[in-house]
Amino acid sequence: xxxxxxxxxxxxxxxxxxxxxxxxxxxxxxxxxxxxxxxxxxxxxxxxxxxxxxxxxxxxxxxxxxxxxxxxxxxxxxxxxxxxxxxxxxxxxxxxxxxxxxxxxxxxxxxxxxxxxxxxxxxxxxxxxxxxxxxxxxxxxxxxxxxxxxxxxxxxxxxxxxxxxxxxxxxxxxxxxxxxxxxxxxxxxxxxxxxxxxxxxxxxxxxxxxxxxxxxxxxxxxxxxxxxxxxxxxxxxxxxxxxxxxxxxxxxxxxxxxxxxxxxxxxxxxxxxxxxxxxxxxxxxxxxxxxxxxxxxxxxxxxxxxxxxxxxxxxxxxxxxxxxxxxxxxxxxxxxxxxxxxxxxxxxxxxxxxxxxxxxxxxxxxxxxxxxxxxxxxxxxxxxxxxxxxxxxxxxxxxxxxxxxxxxxxxxxxxxxxxxxxxxxxxxxxxxxxxxxxxxxxxxxxxxxxxxxxxxxxxxxxxxxxxxxxxxxxxxxxxxxxxxxxxxxxxxxxxxxxxxxxxxxxxxxxxxxxxxxxxxxxxxxxxxxxxxxxxxxxxxxxxxxxxxxxxxxxxxxxxxxxxxxxxxxxxxxxxxxxxxxx
Length: 582
Prior knowledge:
Layout: H1 2-8, H2 10-16, H3 24-49, H4 51-59, H5 61-65, H6 68-75, H7 81-130, H8 135-138, H9 143-150, H10 152-184, H11 186-206, H12 208-234, H13 236-242, H14 245-271, H15 273-295, H16 299-331, H17 333-343, E1 364-372, E2 381-389, E3 393-398, H18 404-411, E4 419-424, E5 427-428, H19 435-439, E6 442-446, H20 456-461, H21 468-480, H22 484-489, H23 507-520, E7 525-529, H24 537-548, E8 555-559, H25 563-566, E9 571-575, E10 580-581
Parallel strand pairs: 3-8, 3-9, 6-7, 7-8
Antiparallel strand pairs: 1-2, 1-4, 4-5, 9-10
């Protein structure tokens, strides 16, 4: 029943779809929060109820003395005289107010912390799902869109979850305050709630379409901003040479302005009713006080009116919080859906088994009748078959678009063939679910090798904490890759920072560092995808000689158009042509 109700309020129901991605511990903490919120509601009930005897004490002492509780306390000698009654009532009111304050502060702190912890789980899970989707699915996605969803849009989603917890808190507090006010003055309370509630309802219904529009603009502009940043930083040389500074600055400013104006407009819609409601409530209380003074100056009514005024003063922020939280959630409709999309990504586990230590590559790699195409009617790898012995150096050639890199992706287990099989020492890695084990033995070196913005040794070991044993191993690998002397010549040696993507290094140095990394990881297969195509002939020859000197047991695949690279190959596979032994 409750689920169907929330489905009608789809913007709230979205948040319940995060439940499968939240840990059991967080769910228990949500239940605890609900309990403390109810406790906070009771504390509000007590604090507002304590206002009536306190105001009666100030305006009509004789009426208070007739109170049954006060009479009982006086009769049993707990209180004696007006002074003690005054002190008791004052302390009761003060303690009730302080207790209510402490509960509210605790709930505020707890809900914010819980939002942060839930946010961390959701953000981490979204990232985990993204880096574990099948490679073929990843290749279809836009990196700028992924970055926007994992960063700013995830933050907006966490804000929506925080608003939801705030909405729950305000609903519970409001309920208890309304119950208290109904006890004190039922007629006045009903009229006030009807007036104030109607104002909020009308504003919310009128702003629905505007909020959806703002949400769409926020989501779109965030993705555009990230895309523009990526493109401009990636084309930095071209920006300087072609004087495109103004062009990129202009389109960035447009995207940024659209996002910020949409956020500000949504924030205005969430905040402006507060001032209207406060004014309406103040006028209502003023009118009632005037009518009482004009007619009979009833002191009991003054006490009730005072309690009602304090109750309303507490109720209005809760009403505003309910409204603004709801608006915040609605304004984040698109980012919420995008983050849910990341969380619901399916990880293809059917071809991945448990890692086993005794999975070995000692003899050969056999490619049997491989067929592949990204579309069923466009098969560009047809019946590819070959057997590679361990330690072979295989050259892969072919026309652009013939499927050389795709074949390597299949061999690496990143994508699966439509038909055919891959056998390692006679064992199928696809049928026997050994792709994970196989991938541990492979290193991939492309033309644009990715290097971290960290030190030489961190890029070789792919680790931030380096032991003495690791350093010795890294140095030996760097020597084998013929980059040790250069590293030692830098300011801090192996701890010298190489810059983002190795910007402080030459092309040849980056490739050597990549080879050192592959050796450190003890890879048995090294795949070079046009790794030397951007190098000058002298540097290329030096890299080729380095590759030639590597361990004879290292199996190497080289996608290349350079004849010099093919000279060191034992076998040449021409995609779309004839296969030859060199």
